[in-house]
Amino acid sequence: AVPVTVISAIGSASKFGVVVKSGAAFEQFGSIRTVAFDKTGTLTQGHPQVTEVRTTAGFDRGQVLAWAAALEATSTHPLAAAITAAVPDASAAEDVHEEAGHGLTGRVDGRTVRVGNPRWLNPSGLRDDADELAETGMTVIVVEADGAVIGLIGVRDELRPEAAETVRMLHAQDIDTVMLTGDDARTARTLAAQAGIDDVRAEQLPADKAAAITQLAASGPTAMVGDGINDAPALATATVGIAMGATGSAAAVESADIAFTGHDLRLIPAAFTHARRGRRIMT
Ligand code: ADP
Ligand code: MG
């Protein structure tokens, strides 16, 4: 049975748009020591924009974007939306396979095209360009056709305006913060520094994110905040999984214990105050 005090804490929490799957989860939330955040679509706006395209000799910007967009049209990843938005009339791709945390492969205009991160697809001749874009906080997407790199797409996804304030609020509540991301280490460090997070675990595949949560949870109850895209296992592994934003994927809400209908990260420290009050009344 769920203690009455927890129910009343949930009751007041629901005023600011929180769906709690169980009283136990909300109660545990009041004891968390660490909050781990997914980056893309959680700490960032999740509305990334194409800001740079670099190409290898013989290919132009339009060609690189068009082939990438043909594949990305099949994906729900926030990066996919950035690329398709940059190409109004992309060709159709066939046999597209998405590899979680890596990218996509498919057939476009008779070629085998791949789009993905610089660890999965070696940027080869464009290595220096890839490094340069990542240093400035852009996510770098490599585009390959028939096994050869044809270009890079630099995508910028700004931090959410309340991210740094949220991190300060959590630190004031004596809660540690961590960024978990599948993105490149340099891109991640640049954005984490802006948010005030100093523990950054980058280049994490979905299973790595879950393993990182297990490791963090060994030193105290740990919450994971994500959007369900490539972080559903981590949400499920955390002491308390938190899905942000009603626009988040169904996977997020399914894997989470607590879902916020609004996307304002400050709801996390606010809900923590409520959850702790609920605990204090009980004990
Ligand atoms: P995050 O942890 O920041 O939310 P993800 O785990 O969702 O990032 O993705 C990790 C990385 O995998 C991305 O930064 C990107 O490089 C690559 N990636 C994943 N999905 C796609 C896609 N649809 N198109 C291009 N790259 C992708
Ligand atoms: Mg994500």
How would the blueprint of this fold be written?
Layout: H1 4-13, E1 18-20, H2 23-29, E2 34-38, H3 39-43, E3 49-55, H4 61-72, H5 78-85, E4 94-99, E5 103-108, E6 111-116, H6 127-135, E7 139-145, E8 148-156, H7 163-172, E9 176-180, H8 185-195, E10 199-201, H9 206-217, E11 222-226, H10 232-237, E12 240-244, H11 250-255, E13 258-260, H12 267-282
Parallel strand pairs: 2-9, 2-11, 9-10, 11-12, 12-13
Antiparallel strand pairs: 1-13, 3-8, 4-5, 5-6, 6-7, 7-8
Bound molecules: adenosine-5'-diphosphate and magnesium ion (MG).
What are the salient characteristics of this protein?
13 strands; binds adenosine-5'-diphosphate; 2 domains; binds magnesium ion; seven-stranded mixed beta sheet; 25% strand; Calcium-transporting ATPase, cytoplasmic domain N; alpha/beta; 283 residues; Rossmann fold
The averaged pLDDT comes out at: 89
Distance between the termini: 16 Å
Tell me the number of helical segments per DSSP (H or I, 4 or more residues long): 12
* Beta-strand share of residues: 15-25%
Shape: elongated
Work out the radius of gyration.
20 Å
Q: Uncertain segments of ≥5 residues (pLDDT<50)?
A: none
Succession of helices and strands:
HEHEHEHHEEEHEEHEHEHEHEHEH
Specify the structural class: alpha/beta
Fraction in helix: 25-40%
Q: What small ligands are held by the chains?
A: adenosine-5'-diphosphate, magnesium ion
Second CATH tier, the architecture of the largest domain: 3-Layer(aba) Sandwich
Strand order of the largest sheet: 1-13-12-11-2-9-10
Organism: Brachybacterium kimchii
Family: Belongs to the cation transport ATPase (P-type) (TC 3.A.3) family. Type IB subfamily.
Protein name: Cadmium-translocating P-type ATPase
Subcellular location: Cell membrane
